[in-house]
Structure prediction request, 555 residues.
Amino acid sequence: MSDELHDLYQSIILDHNKRPRHYGALEDSTHTAEGYNPLCGDKINVHVILRGETVESIQFEAACCAICKASASMMTEALLGQTIENSQHAHARVSELLNADKDTSADISEEGELAALAGVKKFPARIKCATLPWHTFESALKNPVG
Amino acid sequence: MTAPAFDAARARADFPILATEVRGKPLTYLDNAATGQKPQVLIDAVERYYRAENSNIHRGVHYLSEQATDAYEAARAKVAQFIGIADQDEIIFTRGTTESINLVAHGFIETVFQAGDEILISHMEHHANIVPWQIAAEKTGAILKVVPVDDRGVLDMAAFEQMLSAKTKLVAITHISNALGTINPVEEIIEKAHAIDVPVLIDGAQSTPHMAVDVAALGCDFFVFSGHKVFGPTGIGVLWGKREWLERFPPYQSGGDMIEKVDFDGTTYKGIPGKFEAGTPHIEGVVGLAVAIDYLMGLDRKGALLHEAALLKAATEQLSAIDGLRIIGTSPHKASVISFLINDIHPHDIGTFLDADGVAIRAGHHCTQPLLKRFGVPATARASFAFYNDFDDVDRLVKAVQKMQKFFG
Prediction:
């Protein structure tokens, strides 16, 4: 198996794919959105309970690939309990990790599990898989329930 | 005496890309339903065209323009011969199957469809044979009806007969399903439709690469296909239509080259095929297409089809033996296309994993979202074989899938 493929499917990614955290519908969600990638058919729903400026609860449901599901799972862990402002910082950092033109190896250690997503950037066709959950979260923030 | 087997190794040597490596592995190209590879003769012809023959057509009186015009019109004759059509004026060059269908849809919107009319398509159509009819229906008040498929991906012919009626103004159906490989009984469909004077469009994008198609014998009213899938250039395609239909349709696009006489008081158009070929066409595409078709016609096509059937059988048997692998599309009449899923591994992951081993397959919805929805899956992995594929390709596919299944297992 090639090194690049190994970097893409790191054990952290495989683990999140097999046992996605915060998976399923969310009762009483205040914000929700559906994300869809028409290119491959990946579909994800992100449900959020916002209390003031804080992500009090976040869950997702998805029919998607391992990269998308792992990214979503890690996203829920990273964003739970965070302020909206912090969540936007996290999104920006993930976007940088996935930017193929940028060498992010120096500051990768600060990202925790999210750093595992850096392996995706060598696979340009898969970058959208990793970013879909984050874009869907942003959409959810703009989409209050009811 | 039996005929000598098809010489796939010889055919393979005609396609330089098949000898290349990707990601440090020999290329195993199994995405032929998306596009075919190009033989050296075509690459040479396009290169020669730009090096020594380039000129615009139907205009100049100079030598090169005459040569280019002759080559362009000779290509039209070659295409007619390729699909068994006597009247070469009925061959219209388009950008591809999609544009061919859009041109026909435009003609039906302008001259046929009325509110309440019905358009009959099947559940296994490519988006290119769905969306133009949806738009036609929206514009005219016609109704789009969809013939169902069964769990094997076989067209429900009993339903087709029930749905076909005096209200039906067109049947538009694919010859071979790009996602499942199902070969449809188009002869029977055409016969039943014609029995009540309903015209039929056959989407030949997936059949022309696999088999010799005699359109005159089929007897349909329109036949469309793409150059790039028959191992020719991209951006060139063919619409064949019966003369009476094409003459009835108004121009699809307008401008230079499609006119007879332009005056501010009124403009008259050329007859077919010129009426439908506005502007400078894709000349090197047409020239290249003729060369690709010539190449195909020089092959033992019956032998090639048998060879592909043997590849399909071997790949189907070996893939089916893999734990958790499920093939979507199990029609008894199938072209060499295998759509599959393995447990809950997403096809996108299958595609990336196989790619690392140099195995090029398609992962996704194959522009057939309604069909995949019917099978309850958002996407599949699809391996599709051409005559130049061999049993080593099958072997590399199967080994790569086994390796992946272990990894994700």
Remarks:
- Chain A has one domain: 3-141.
